[in-house]
Amino acid sequence: MSEMRLHDPAGNRLYLNAEERAAFLAAARRQPARDRTLCEALHWTGCRPSELLEITPARVDLSGGTIAVRSLKKRKDASGSAKIVFRSVPVPPEFLDTLNTAHGVRESQASRKKSALPIWPLSRVRVWQIVKRVMIEARLPDAPHRSPKGLRHGFGVHATVQGVPLHMLQRWLGHAQLSTTAIYADAVGKEEQYIAARMWG
Questions:
Q1: What is the annotated signal peptide range for this record (predicted)?
Q2: I want to staple 16 with a disulfide (CB 3.0 to 4.6 A). Which of 20, 46, 76, 144 is the partner?
């Protein structure tokens, strides 16, 4: 298994910084409803595109303020059998309002059939294309971090900068090992320098 990194071998950043995340979110909010909610869901949950495509209305807790995401990385229980792991990720109430309005989440939850259908019935390639287009519109530089994975890593770095405990972030991101999540703590120093430089300027 390859080790997760926040910089490529040439030292290029593989995550969106705070300014880029804000620009992406602003650009997403100018999109049609489907693309806007898709981008916002990735922004607010840090989930992988393949995990996003499995989200159904039944997994959206409008009153609890969370979205249940199925971890698609293979896990095994004590007997060695594959197990299904869900994680509940808290999201802002405003996003849930937007999601409900755009996709009729509450109405779909009243129907067993509708509540089991994906909110975004798209392919992974289509999700990648939408995210990439929005990132270009947000004027993010043409660099390795301009990707859905850069958005996920940006979520992890942002959460760490904001003081979210690593064990909680581990759960939100669906990492099997805390050591994987700990890479985000390594990036905090660089982000703090960036924030400090803006303060000094």
A1: none
A2: 20
Helix (H, G, I), strand (E, B) or coil at 61: strand
Examine the pLDDT at 110 and tell me if it is beyond 50: yes
What are the start-end ranges of the E strands in 41-158? Answer: 60-61, 66-71, 85-90
Instruction: Kindly write down the DSSP assignment for every residue of 163-179, as one continuous string.
Output: T--HHHHHHHHT-S-HH
pLDDT, tens digit, for every residue of 18-38?
A: 999 999 999 999 999 999 999
- For the chain, how are helix, strand and coil distributed in percent, rounded to 5? 55, 10, 35
Distance CA 198, CA 201 (A): 5
Whether residue 113 contacts residue 31, with contact meaning beta carbons closer than 8 Å, is answered with: no
If residue 43 lies in a helix (H) or strand (E), which one and from where to where?
helix 33-45
> How would CATH label the architecture of 18-200?
Orthogonal Bundle (1.10)
- The residue ranges of every structural domain in the chain are 18-200
pLDDT, one tens digit per residue, over 127-137 is 999 999 999 99
